[in-house]
Give the backbone structure.
Amino acid sequence: MIIGKIVGVKIKLNKWFVFLMLVYAMIDLLPQALIVFGVAFLHEMAHVFVAINEGYHVIEIEVMPFGGVAKIDNMLGCDVHSEFNIAIAGPLNNLALMGVGWLMQYCHVWNPDLTFFFIKVNLFMALFNFIPALPLDGGRIYRSLLARKIGFKKASEKAFGMSRFISVILMIGGSIGFYLGYVNALVIVIAIFLFGASNQEKQMTLYVIMKNYTKKKEDLLKKGIISGEQLVVLETTPVGEVINYALPQKYHTFVIMNHHWEIAGMITESQVVDILMEKGISITMKQILYQNKVKFLD
């Protein structure tokens, strides 16, 4: 159910949100539930405002029982700098709201118990989203910082590994804590969610690489010039290894060296990607040279 728009973004109410608000009202927990929802919703709005500023189109925000989910068009495979800015906006917003909460508590402008609850919820939201595990904001921040140096694919693999490690630690720690009565089952649920969601992100890696490549072509056609980088590769290197070092913000050319340490030829990123899609990741750079009938250098 769409209830309105904010800065041109549709606000949609999930049916479970309406149902749970009625339930919370009946058990006298409506104020706390609304605070949790409001904090999470403002967290999403921070992402929305930065995404719009970065030039992305935000389709809608769906209001869920414990927050909101922003649907951003073409967010998958966005520029690493944009990914960083959009991701960090959420937890920074929560830290700012914490400051507002402390000010309200100092000035005694709201119910002390609810103000303290507001501060705690923002602290939890900020710390939780700074965890470097995909698909949390912290995971996207971690990946975007790595991708600037080692390429999107390699950065994604490291981020996936970190996500699985954190999920397993949370699962083990949560299970022990639940057995001993220190934590509730929510920690285990979060661990399962992170593990499953990170695997879904991993399946999209090749698609994101293709999106980055398509964006480079569009930028080159639009601007006539983009930043480039040259990489030196042995002819026996599989294309799957080469793609690991491709930076999403630069267009690459590859200098192919043979076993005599001589230049065997040069190919472009476009040629590598075309053969990658046709032949797979195990084909070598030497084979790509022959496939593209690139002129060898004497």
In short: Residues 1-130 form one domain. The longest helix spans residues 152-180. The beta strands are 2-6, 9-13, 58-64, 67-72, 228-234, 251-257, 263-268. The chain has eleven helices and seven strands.
